[in-house]
Amino acid sequence: MRMLSIDTSTYCLSAALTEDRERIAEITTNIKKNHSLRLQPAVRTLMEETGWKMKDLEAVGVTAGPGSYTGVRIGVTSAKSYAWALDIPLYAVSSLELLSYSGRGFHGLVCPFLDARRGRVFTGLYAYDDGHMQQVEEDRNTSMEDWLERLQREEKPILFVSPDADVFRSTICGALPEAFFTERGDYHPGVSMIRYAVERQEPVDTHAFVPNYTRLAEAEAKWREQYGN
Amino acid sequence: MGEIMTTSLILAVETSCDETAAAVIQNGNEIRSSVIASQMESHQRFGGVVPEVASRHHVEQITLVMEQALAEADVSPDDLDAVAVTEGPGLVGALLVGISAVKAAAFAWDLPVLPVHHIAGHIYANHLVEELTFPLMALVVSGGHTELIYMEDHHSYEKLGETRDDAVGEAYDKVARTIGLPYPGGPEIDKLAGTAEPELALPRAWLEEGSLDFSFSGLKSAVINTLHNAEQKGRTVDPAVLAASFQEAVCDVLVTKTMQALEQRPVRQLVVAGGVAANQGLRAGLEEAAAGQEWKLSIPPLALCTDNAAMIGAAAHQQWLKGQKADDRLNGMPGLPLPLTSSS
Ligand SMILES: [Zn+2]
After folding, report:
1. For chain B, where are the E strands, in sequence order?
2. Do the Cβ atoms of B104 and A70 come within 8 Å?
3. According to the model, what pLDDT value does residue B5 have?
4. Same domain, B147 and B199
5. H runs (alpha helix) in A29-158
6. B67 and B52 share a domain?
7. Does the interface predicted TM-score (ipTM) exceed 0.85?
8. Which domain holds residue B98?
9. Which among A17, A65, B142, B318 is placed 20 to 30 Å from A23, CA to CA?
10. Which of these ranges, A43-47, A193-197, B80-84, has the smallest mean pLDDT?
11. Nearest chain B Cα distance for residue A135, angstroms
């Protein structure tokens, strides 16, 4: 299956072409520049380099979030539009699951996380058994304090994978002195890793698909607090 | 006849605020389809458009709306010449949804992307009703704009005047909130104003002699003060009278300044554009002023005054004729200025 995959949920931009289990081409850049300026040029470069045509594609893969609201929206909207315009299936994978692939050789638990401000994180817990991913805890938006309390109950070593590792490094090490971290700036495994995830999933409904923000818009949350759902 | 291509079929998308819209426009003036998914109900709860909520709704609707526009026009992507999208101004997160969707679809179909200025779109809404005749004057009145723009030709804009504080639609919404009318307040005031006489004397900001600029913040404050003073004295003000008086003051300034602009720059057509062009008071005032004049007054029908994608397709056609297309790096431009030929 010839697939175009994109991830714009963090500052990293990653776009890849894969065919079945093979990675054909991949572009990953880690710079603080708007994804709207970077995504389409990257996709064009991939097509030009490989000589693939858009109409040869058989699937589109995307990270569904959580992450930067705007970043995730650019990726999800673009992916929906590629899939719709080409009439091919759309596969969606958690952006945290994608990050967790950075730890697929790690013997223990993998905790990808993203800074969600004010002491909160988007996070989840994953494990790799012989390369097979297992989700130990679902993706969520939680305070890092609560999350570390939960993680302290784990016996296995934990590898933290995050672009925002430095923000929480001392907090994490305070609670879990044995914590492991990926090398600085080396947290992103490249979006071509999605090819493994889509093997065990069904495509999503392209029109109805929306990002997994893991939290309500602030105004919406306040409104619901006041008036209920 | 030469070989120059002048016929076009354009899929246009507009997501600058709280409407997810797509349309198929033929030759810049024929609406093959125009689809609008409105989020108004969602934002009504908050008393105004919440940007993050708007962006989320756009993602829910965007491909559906594009598909419906193609289906209703009975057009397949192979028939299209280009895909157009609002580049700005507007809410950046909202703009980015339309832009991302259009860039991806256009690349998938190997079509050019035409980036359109939202206000140019409002002006070109008139082109869907009758051909724009140049030179023309455009009075642009909306929640974000109050401008007098002179156009020598297609996509040539010269700004003669603009608001120095609130946009007229913004003033309407704020006054409506003060009176206790639901959001969006503009149409509510308009409705209420039609039921009473403008008995209250409210100020008009004419600014310096000869200035074509506008100011509505003083008027807005006067309305608020009138209510407060009455309240302190234990009296009530009839909201309908207040609405009528406010509306009269606004329309007086808009019409008078527009006439002054037309004296400075004779034109063949006066075009009214933007959401506030739907206002009955303004329509009546301008129609009265236009009687017996050499120029022609054009106000689009209500459905084309508010945000829609048909107007974006109409404006895009002229860009398509000139070969003005966007590159892959097209970005949402929340404060995008009109490409002015010169400014005074
Ligand atoms: Zn508008």
Report:
1. 9-14, 19-26, 30-38, 82-88, 113-117, 136-141, 146-151, 158-162, 269-273, 296-298
2. no
3. 67
4. yes
5. 35-50, 69-86, 95-100, 144-151
6. yes
7. yes
8. 4-124+305-321
9. A65
10. A193-197
11. 27
